Amino acid sequence: MNILGIETSCDETAAAVVKNGRTVLSNVVYTQIPLHVPYGGVVPEIASRAHIEKISEVVRTAIAEANGAEIDAVAVTYGPGLSPALIVGLNAAKGLAKSLNVPLFGVNHIEAHLHTPFLDGDVEPADMMPALGLAISGGHTTWIDMPVYGRYEIVGQTLDDAAGEAFDKAAKLLGLGYPGGPKIDKIAKEYSGELVPFPKGRPRDGVSALAGLPAECCVSFSGLKTALLRYIQKNGGAEAIAASGDIPKVVASYQEAIVQAVAERTSTALKRRNCKALIVGGGVSLNSRLRAVLADVCKRAGVPLLMAQPKYCGDNGAMIAALAYYRRNKGGDEAFDLDVAPSLDFE
Q: Cβ-count burial of 121 within 10 angstroms (0-12 exposed, 13-18 middle, 19+ buried)?
């Protein structure tokens, strides 16, 4: 079964064709990063306009690069994400499915990220259950219990900023540009000395209780951002820190605080559940330090670490098409009545 997946939840216009949920026949991504660099973050109106301009071209290219594969169904992200961006992809998918007279499937964007480690692989997702999932991206830092494939329970999450957002805001404060995650990762590799003792994001018990989740499985990055801001102010500003050559030290310290916070919560969550694997998805999973530390966490826990190939870590259409193959119960005539769900949670 060849499914065409469309993804427009944020600042990538993406489409892909995937065979039987794992074999990627094509994967086309148009990134809008240059459009958002002047603003230091994604501007929803600019994102939606760019999606409108590029969606037809990206879909045509994905179909062409699939080398004549017949499209048996269309899948699309309907949430979570930016409402103006989601609308473009959802409407395009509905029109395409109608014109091809094929089924339409609505897909949860975050659930799709947790499928990415299985792309271009030979492992059946169900064989790795029960598992602990970690969705870590610009908008999410969430730990998910997966007792069987397709069932989810959130066991921990960020109570404010996601890890990717924390990276972007740090890069903006230090004048490093956008997107912050890749820049911080690259600079941090240059440093191996003493670290600034930034806080590792442990929320107060009472605060986490408001979310109905245990504090030991939750994280808060707002205090870390404040600590960085005060450090910059105390040391004469970002320009003074750069002139002194201390940017790598500050960046490495900040990154380590985020990585260790995520690692500690992951280790705790693994101990609370009898898991066969840790499944990690999302753009921040590209971070080289995070990959190394999570590998060590899994080694100590005695479980395999399943992470996507780098080309599938960011937003892409392949993960949408692939998940739809396994979650076809979300399709049919009802999918044509779907509206965008910017705050969509796990069902």
A: middle
- Cα–Cα dist 45/179, whole Å: 18
Backbone angles phi, psi at 31, to 5 degrees: -95, 140
Determine phi and psi for 19, rounding to 5 degrees: -100, 125
Q: Is the peptide bond before 130 cis (omega within 30 degrees of 0)?
A: yes
Binned at pLDDT 50, 70 and 90, residue 30 comes out as very high
| Residue-wise pLDDT tens digits, 33-52 | 999 988 888 899 999 999 99
Range of the domain at 161: 127-308
Do 316 and 278 share a structural domain? no
CATH code, domain carrying 257? 3.30.420.40
Residues 58 and 168 in one domain: no
Contacts of 120 (CB under 8 A, 6+ apart): 22, 23, 24, 309
- The helix/strand/coil state of 157 is strand
Measured CA to CA, the distance from residue 216 to residue 125 in angstroms comes to 28
Tell me the two tokens of residue 111.
Answer: 């659930």
Q: Is residue 122 part of a domain?
A: no
**Reported pTM:** 0.92
Task: Judge residue 273's burial from the number of C-beta atoms within 10 Å of its C-beta, 0-12 exposed, 13-18 middle, 19 or more buried.
Answer: middle
Structural tokens at position 318: 């392949």
Tens of pLDDT, residues 235-252: 999 999 999 999 999 999
User: In sequence order, which residues have a C-beta less than 8 Å from that of residue 322 and are 6 or more positions away?
Assistant: 3, 5, 18, 21, 22, 24, 112, 115, 116, 118, 119
